[in-house]
Amino acid sequence: MSRWWQGRARLPRGEGPWAWLAAGSVTLSVALLALLLGLLAIRGLGHFWPGDIALVTLEDGRQLAGREVKEVPLPDGEGRERLYRTGNRELDGDIWAWVPVAAIETVSHPRELVSLERRHWGELVGRLVAWVPEQGPRLEGEAAWSALQSRLGTLERQREALERWREQTLSPLVRRLESGEADAAATDALQALQARLRERRAAMAGDRLILATADGRRLVQPVEEVLRATRPNAMGVLAKLGAWGRGAWRFLSEGPRAANTAGGVWPAIFGTVLLVMVMSLLVTPFGVLAAVYLNEVAHQGRLTRLVRIGVRNLAGVPSIVYGVFGLGVFVYGIGGRLDAWFFADTLPSPTFGTGGLLWASLTLALLTLPVVIVATEEGLARIPDRQREGALALGATRLEMLSRVVLPMATPAMLTGMILAVARAAGEVAPLMLVGVAKLAPQVPVDGDFPFLHLERKFMHLGYHIFDAAFHGGDVQAAMPLIYATALLLVLVILLLNLTAIFLRHHLRSRHGTLSQC
Amino acid sequence: MPVMREPAPSRGAFVDFAPEATSLEVSGFGLRYGDKPALRNLTLRVPRHRVTAFIGPSGCGKSTLLRALNRLHDLNEEVQWEGRIRLEGQDIHAPEVSVAELRRRVGMVFQAPNPFPMSIYDNVAFGLRLQGGMRKRRLDDTVEWALRSAALWDEVKDRLQASAWSLSGGQQQRLVIARTLAVGPEVLLLDEPASALDPISTLKVEELIRNLKSSLTLVLVTHNMQQAARVSDYTAFLQDGELVEYAPTDTLFTNPRLRRTENYITGRMA
Ligand SMILES: Nc1ncnc2c1ncn2[C@@H]1O[C@H](COP(=O)(O)OP(=O)(O)OP(=O)(O)O)[C@@H](O)[C@H]1O
Ligand SMILES: [Mg+2]
User: Fold this and answer.
1) Which residue has the higher pLDDT, A402 or A5?
2) Taking CA atoms, what residue in B is nearest to A405?
3) How crowded is residue A297: how many other Cβ atoms within 10 Å of its Cβ?
4) pTM over 0.80
5) Which strands, in side-by-side order, build the sheet including B217-221?
6) Cβ–Cβ under 8 Å, residues A123 and A116
7) Interval A356-374 mean pLDDT
8) What is the pLDDT of residues B189-241, one digit of tens each?
9) Residue A362 — pLDDT band, cuts 50, 70, 90?
10) Which residue's CA lies nearest to atom 22 of ligand 1?
11) What integer best gives the mean pLDDT of chain B?
12) Please, what CATH class does the domain formed by A266-510 belong to?
């Protein structure tokens, strides 16, 4: 006891600069990680906060309304300028406004400034002038605001009902028609349904808003296009927190809008998690069997050693190489063959002969196979031979010994392999682009139609969503907060997947007290 | 090589039991690990329902011999053997003999306790479940009987579902013995079963061995001369993979025929 303590006390002194160097590296790594997560968290989470809208009056009398984004020094070094996010894309052609700080006369935050979130064209900032319903009297001022709020509530409910109806009645019919199961009568039914959908949509239109921008221009806005209306300057902290929570929830639960630069990421979350789960289900049994063969069955000769080295080196192959392999072998090779045999009636439109969840999962499974094999093998090698002999000496066959003693003892190692595989696979984007990820896949691969899990469908992925929003969207600056939020979410999803696996492993370990030794 | 070799003993000639009382019979058995011989031309008979001790210096092949008796060497591709081992007159290497069946008949307890990472109950039931077809009631009864036979029941009866790894070393070793007894072996091979145990646990295991003798044939490997003297009826002394002397324990310890045996025993006992 006392020796142990002395040994510890001596350590930092004896190590001198090396200890400091090592400790410094750890600190640096942790700090960088914290910085990364902090940046993602602040930028990403800030996106949902309904910030105050500033009404800026310039020296020349012009006015503009918007949210302050940042302030930077002017290029010539004289003074500073501010960036405001003003919205109103269809009026100004841009949603940003740079203002030299020196030119600002006053900044105020009038309570009546309204921010409208719309289905198209993004945000609208201005004053509410009047509410013009299809039937009924025109309202102005506070009355207009409350009328708008109550109409938005009913609109939301109507939209939801419509969406449900479309999903439950219309989509299955469309799918049946596409797959050729339904007959001509169904086509008529579909047309009738679509007409009704248009009718219902039309019924929602009609009400209008009249708004004025900060610089006095007038604008007529159909209410049906408006998703939400807020007056951030009139909101207290609690109300803002509520709006923030609802915004974050919508981000998690809704699908994307406006070419992936707005709206939520639910299909992408779903796709990411489903992809990783299918991948784990594919890779774990294969990896474990391979490891068992290498460690327990194969003659431990030169060939086995060679295979082992090969497997270890496969872990270092760049992921895009696996993507190319997946495209060539799984998608075109196997998928094309499957289509020719089983789905010939729908050709030339491919079923399995194009990227999809199955091929992407298989590609990732291949990518992570070495990790699982290596981790499992290490676990198997740590199991003492006397455990194996103990089982054999009781009359167990080799299979019984493996399945009842060795594999249960190696379960934590297998799960470690799975954790590493999940960690690697969840962050991969490059190979997915070749084997089935989609920019927009409105149908998630799981639904009420038989066989419920549609492995041939394309899917969305958080990593690809970031890539797409950053490089293919129109206004990267506008999509930036969403990109941060998505990145944060991706990190959190990976963390959650890992924690699940770790929890599982811990649970299995603690079932038998000291089993964690192995 | 010593200048004067002692005359080779006519092995097995000094034991006094009738051939019908033989449980295991080893004849002309030799074994090599790759190129390295570990056992040479071994011939001896192990009496039924007696305790036979194998003694000898470290590395002389005691464990190798023991493992040969229930074919644990089968998995080691390096091992080559010759000669014959018979259990109740039947060649254990005969093609019609099932290894699993043989190992159930010839149980083995290893030097370090090796309970499986399962509950105490599951450990004892392990071998029984392999055979299958046993009702829960009978399984319970057999587990209890085995634990009682191994003098462990009173210590664990209240925590049968606890992890076997939570037991002390001595309890673990008795659990392993119980686990082996549960499948109903005719022969029990014990490879230094008490070497990792404290004196009290050792005494318990020794007492257990003496009690088991009435229903089992026991083979005990030990480095402890007193232990061999205390519990065994016959003792075989091995050296360099050869059987040097084999006799009733009393005779071997009080009146060894060969100088080599005497040196070993007295060296150890002094
Ligand atoms: N698996 C193996 N591979 C190669 N050589 C082995 C193996 N097991 C044992 N040996 C060798 O065979 C000889 C006999 O070993 P064995 O384990 O039977 O000795 P032992 O009498 O049990 O010794 P101890 O009293 O130390 O347990 C030794 O020289 C040992 O090095
Ligand atoms: Mg030994």
Assistant:
1) A402
2) B116
3) 11
4) no
5) B106-109, B187-191, B217-221, B51-55, B234-239, B242-248
6) yes
7) 91
8) 999 888 877 888 888 889 889 888 899 999 999 988 889 999 999 999 999 99
9) very high
10) B63
11) 86
12) mainly alpha
| Packing angle of the helix pair B199-212, B136-149 (nearest 10 deg) | 120
Only one residue has tokens 């205390």, namely B230
Mean predicted confidence (pLDDT) in A16-21: 84
Question: The CATH number of B19-113+185-266 is which of 3.40.50.300, 3.50.50.60, 3.40.228.10, 3.30.980.40?
Answer: 3.40.50.300
Task: Name residues contacting ligand 1 (CB within 6 A).
Answer: B 33, 36, 38, 58-64, 76
The answer to whether B172 touches B124, Cβ cutoff 8 Å, is no
Cα–Cα distance for residue pair A296/B75, rounded to 1 Å: 11
pLDDT above 70: residue A120: yes
Q: Side chain identity at B155, as an amino acid letter?
A: E
User: Which residue has the least CA distance to atom 9 on ligand 1?
Assistant: B64
Q: What is the pLDDT of residues A123-146, one digit of tens each?
A: 888 888 888 877 778 888 788 888
Summarize pLDDT for A174-213 with one digit per residue, the tens.
777 766 666 667 777 777 777 877 776 676 667 888 888 8
- The DSSP bridge pattern shows strands A54-58 and A256-257 to be unpaired
Give the per-residue pLDDT at A258: 61
Tell which B residues from 180 to 209 touch A, by Cβ distance under 8 Å: 180, 183
Q: Report yes or no: A146 and A220 within 8 Å, Cβ to Cβ.
A: no
So what's the ipTM on this one? 0.87
B-chain CB neighbours of A390 within 8 Å are 110, 114-116, 176
CA–CA gap between residue A512 and residue B14 (Å, rounded): 50
By CB atoms closer than 10 A (0-12, 13-18, 19+), residue A32 is exposed
Give the nearest ligand 1 atom to B238 CA: 21
Residue partners of B153: CB distance under 8 A and separation at least 6: B144, B147
Nearest by CB to B114, from A299, A390, A408: name it: A390
Q: How much distance in Å is there from the Cα of B62 to the middle of ligand 1?
A: 8
Within chain A, all domains assigned CATH 1.10.3720.10 are found at: 266-510
Measured from the Cα of B57, ligand 1's closest atom is 25
- Kindly determine whether residue B104 and residue A395, on different chains, have CB atoms separated by under 8 Å: yes
Cβ–Cβ under 8 Å, residues B235 and B265:
no
B61 C-alpha vs ligand 1 centroid, how far in Å?
Answer: 6
Name the residue ranges covered by the structural domains of chain B.
19-113+185-266
- From residue A113, alpha-carbon distances to A54, A104, A232, B75, B158 in Å are 9, 19, 8, 83, 74
Subunit contact A394:B183, Cβ cutoff 8 A: yes
The string of pLDDT tens digits covering residues A93-112 is: 788 888 888 888 888 888 88
Ligand number, closest to the Cα atom of B59: 1
What confidence tens digit (pLDDT) does each residue in B15-29 have? 677 888 889 999 999
CB-based contact B105:A503 (threshold 8 Å): no
pLDDT score, position A14: 56
Instruction: Report the phi/psi class of residue B192: left, alpha or beta, with left for phi > 0 and alpha for psi in -120 to 50.
Output: left
Residue B183 has pLDDT above 70, yes or no: yes
Task: List the one residue out of A246, A266, A262, A250 whose CA is nearest residue A462.
Answer: A266
CA of A295 to the centre of ligand 1 (A): 23
Ligand in nearest proximity to the CA of B224 = 1
Chain A CA closest to residue B165 = A514
Comparing alpha-carbon positions, the chain B residue that sits nearest to A518 is: B117
Our CA-based measurement puts residue A295 at a distance from the nearest CA of chain B, in whole angstroms, of: 13
